[in-house]
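User: Okay, second chain of the day. Same drill as before: sequence in, structure tokens out.
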Amino acid sequence: MSLKSYTKGSALPPLENGKLRLYSMRFCPFAQRTRLVLAHKNIQFETINVDLKNKPDWFLERNPLGLVPVLEQDDKIVYESVVCNEYLDDIYSQEKLTPADPYRRARDKMLLEYNGKLVTNYYKFVRSQGKDEEVKTEFNKILEIFEKAIEKRGAYFGGDKVAMLDFFVWPWFERMSPLKTMNIDMLPEETFPNLNQWVARMRNVPAVKATLFDDQAHLVFMKSYMGGQQPNYDFGL
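Assistant: Same drill. Structure tokens below.
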């Protein structure tokens, strides 16, 4: 099955009985969250990439919000990255990623709320090319929360092994590295040493390796997306 994006007017590929399907977009960080969990748990699935600027009607029928990721299996449809990941963790119990302890789960969810602020300020930072000092200050304040958290928790946000929270926050840290080629250092090592060490460890996690794009691919997509043109969803295919 082609990994190229399906656009408006394209036919829906038939879905086999019992087959798990992921509707995705190759460069979407939210969809990457779910691809990370699928890879980590070695779950068999197929991917349908979607042109998010010109969405097929059949995709909107599955998720009226028009966002990825979306999971489909037989008559079951699940969407939104947090919901998809928690669903996968429940039905595929191998390599459990969500903490069993209620307090640890609560702590992770609180930190995930800060990730929402990190995401918002990440895009503000990129758009300003790091030149807006107010945005930069706010972004650094949020990063400091993660810096202190990983210092206390250990190698990963899950302690000595990766947890769901690591996969929830990773995609935006992956997307900080390419910007160094534009002289935009979003994660200076002298300010955030523990986060930089975490990033280095995460790059060796098999699921991260399986879903990682190199800096050049990210830059090509970012420039096409933010340049007001048709995003280059199929770069490299």
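The radius of gyration is 18 Å.

User: Thanks, on to the next one.
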